[in-house]
Amino acid sequence: MLNFTYYNPTRIVFGKGTIAELKTLVPGNAKILMTYGGGSIKSNGVYAQVHEALEGRPLVEFGGIEANPQYETCLKAVAIARSENVDFLLAVGGGSVIDATKFVAAALKYSGGEPWALLSNWPLIRSAVPLGVVLTLPGTGSEMNGGAVISRHATQEKLFFSTEHTFPQFSIIDPEATYSLPKRQFANGTIDAFVQVLEQYLTYPVDSPLQDRFSEGILKTILEEAPKVVADPKNYTARANLMWCATNGLNGLIGCGVPQDWASHMIGHELTVLYGVDHGQSLALVMPLLMRHQRQRKRAKLLQYARRVWGLGAADEDACIDRAIANTEAFFRSLGASVRLAELDIPPTAASLIAERLAKRRMLVGEHHDLGRKEVEEILSMNAGSVA
Ligand code: NZQ
């Protein structure tokens, strides 16, 4: 096992009816900025529950945070928070609202110029305004980590930071808040959670059986529970299990002391910025291609994945790996995602364009930190393969 430091200060408040606990979770003397997205919380009752819990408390609102939150939108929220002397941020939404709020929290304490710099120079983040979360879309794990991903139209960039200063103080996870999720967003979140675990699991063995079994447990639970939600969107138990899977997929625990990949995320971010592909959908496109391209270097873990997650017992190792990759694609498809770039009208030229953009940033991805321009182009060009 590799050396590691593990720190996670986020209090999780989980279950039915827990939004009411905002009353005691938000500090009594706080001036609150409540942030949210395009309005789903108004139609599913979450907005009303938040207001009921915080009745009589000084609160201003900032709505309209878009999916893949934009830097320009975050700056507007920073301006409002400053002019209203806000000292606590409450994010009510999915990964985009939470990430934008984390960025705002850090930007409010930054006086060194354009806060865009925080995304490429993380040590510039030395503190942040405290924040809390009411989660409405499980997948990113942002409710229990210090990471945030922000996009910028002007430069067509999607960059992230990760810092201990932007861990939420608390996150409320009420599975009933997810009943209203459209199929597409349920698929995005579920695939994100699944692929995030693979990013930390599907690398090479370092004698870390506990982390491996944590990861396999999450993957198997997602495979068992997701179809139950597809069949019955109001299945509370399945929703609850999936939410807890997603939170544990990126709260740092399963990644302790193991190599991590993240190539699918970095390539996926480019697909989002250039072609408007949803984040979860981008991962469904890239991860299976990466598995095929890196098949030899990931062989031991691919085989373990085939045997332990998919229960594939055939003696022929290559056949097992082929089947595990095909099963992964079939699972993504069963949720409604595409697994081929062409199905989303992404042109073949995307491969060289994305490879060049990452190379310009001197970005080497993968667990060996050595996948560069050539490999990224090869990975995205493998798309011509047959459909699972
Ligand atoms: O904006 P509203 O109206 O709220 O609608 C949202 C949005 O349109 C809707 N939605 C959310 N909860 C809902 C709901 N609709 C009905 N009922 C509900 N309960 O879903 C749409 C997508 O929301 P968004 O927050 O964008 O989705 P997600 O949670 O998948 O977040 C994606 C963002 O998170 C980043 C991604 O890159 C992307 O920008 N990530 C953040 C990570 C992190 N901080 O650790 C890691 C992730 O891998 C990811 O990169």
Structural notes for this entry:
The protein has 388 residues and is an alpha/beta fold. It has 14 helices and eight strands. The protein has helices spanning 22-25, 40-43, 46-53, 71-83, 95-107, 183-201, 209-231, 236-249, 263-275, 279-293, 299-309, 317-334, 350-360, 373-381; strands spanning 11-14, 32-36, 59-62, 88-93, 131-135, 147-152, 157-162, 170-173. The strands form two sheets. It has a six-stranded parallel β-sheet, with helices on one face. The protein is globular. The two termini are 35 Å apart. 48% of the residues are buried. The model is unreliable at 384-388 (pLDDT under 50). Bound molecules: 5,6-dihydroxy-NADP. 5,6-dihydroxy-NADP binds at residues 37-41, 44, 67-68, 93-97, 99, 136-137, 139-142, 145, 147-149, 177-178, 180-181, 185, 188-189, 192, 196, 250, 265, 279-280.
What is shown here, in short?
The chain is α/β, with parallel strands linked by helices and 388 residues long. Helix content is 45%, strand content 10%.
List the helices and strands and how they pair.
Elements: E1 11-14, H1 22-25, E2 32-36, H2 40-43, H3 46-53, E3 59-62, H4 71-83, E4 88-93, H5 95-107, E5 131-135, E6 147-152, E7 157-162, E8 170-173, H6 183-201, H7 209-231, H8 236-249, H9 263-275, H10 279-293, H11 299-309, H12 317-334, H13 350-360, H14 373-381
Parallel strand pairs: 1-8, 2-3, 2-4, 4-5, 5-8
Antiparallel strand pairs: 6-7
The chain binds 5,6-dihydroxy-NADP.
The number of helical elements comes to 14
Largest sheet: 6 strands, parallel
How many strands?
A: 8
Question: Mean pLDDT, rounded to whole units?
Answer: 96
Low-confidence stretches: 384-388
Distance between the termini: 35 Å
Structural class of the secondary structure composition? alpha/beta
| Proportion of beta-strand residues | 5-15%
Radius of gyration from the alpha-carbon trace, in angstroms: 20 Å
Helical content class: 40-55%
What small molecules are bound in this structure? 5,6-dihydroxy-NADP
Order of helices and strands: EHEHHEHEHEEEEHHHHHHHHH
Widest sheet, order of strands = 1-8-5-4-2-3
Oligomer: single chain
Shape: globular
